Predict the 3D structure of the following.
Amino acid sequence: MEEAEDKIYTLDDIARELGVSKTTVSRAISGKGRIGKETRERVNAFIEQHNYRPNVMAKGLAQKKTYNLAMVIPKDYTADDVPFFRECMNGICEMAASYNYDIMIAMIMGKNLQQIQRLISDRKVDGMIISRATAGSGVQKFLKEKKVPFVVVGPSDDPDVLWVDNHNQEASKELTELMLMKGIRKLALLGGDSSYLVTESRFRGFAQAHQEQGLEPDDSLIFMGIDNYLKAARAVEKTLAAGADGILCMDDFITDLVLGCLREKGVHVPADIKLASLYDSIQLEHNTPTVTSLRFDTRELGRRACVLLLQLLGENIDAEQTPLTYQVILRDSTK
């Protein structure tokens, strides 16, 4: 026979034990609805005595919530995107779990929003966190039309959208300044998709650093839209032909491509040309030579995005907020 102390109580059990209705118990637990003070205290005392924990699904039905959140990422992400998504997701999951929410992954391909539309129409999630790689896909417009709470990881130029991002412009400016102060005067910049706002932020930092040093960026040494080895090889070839003495890459993926191109041409870093990245990764840390990079706290970025979304959903967040910071990691590639 099951011992009373081991019994798992349901709302029906509590109502029966106390001689009240199930609705009364539910109101006492939620703190909503009219209920006498004495009755509320009786229910709360019983709950505390028997260590009752509300079933999340039942609680969700009562509040018309699923206690599910979705993180939206591109279906065509590359292996080089995995570290960012993993760290960001870890932060999101940690924060969500502490408030009894679970995380679902939603993928979109280009402007195809079928999975997002299905999640919303089937009422499977309460809100969404949109990665910066998918922010321009039309998903923001769709979610606004459907009045679905969401937060963007990365900058947004929409004043009605909540977003959180690393200090990309400030960090880009600092690393660019460091390279210019080392005497580099023909600094090439290699970036990815210029439609991404994060790319724009990093470019502004690059340009601002030049201006504050009384210099002008050389337009002939700025290459955007680099997403494969062939494009990187062409940019590197033009960079070397122009006599550049430094290369600044906007992320670790492009940096890895550039390193391969330079090795193929027998160009040595940093003896022949200095190199740095505006985003760090473990590959750059263990490369030969090790690569000077910007390190961001991506896990905290995910936590902060989840906090904003939970607040939109009405949760009272008491977690301590760690400031989003970055570090310039000086390594062998700029010596």
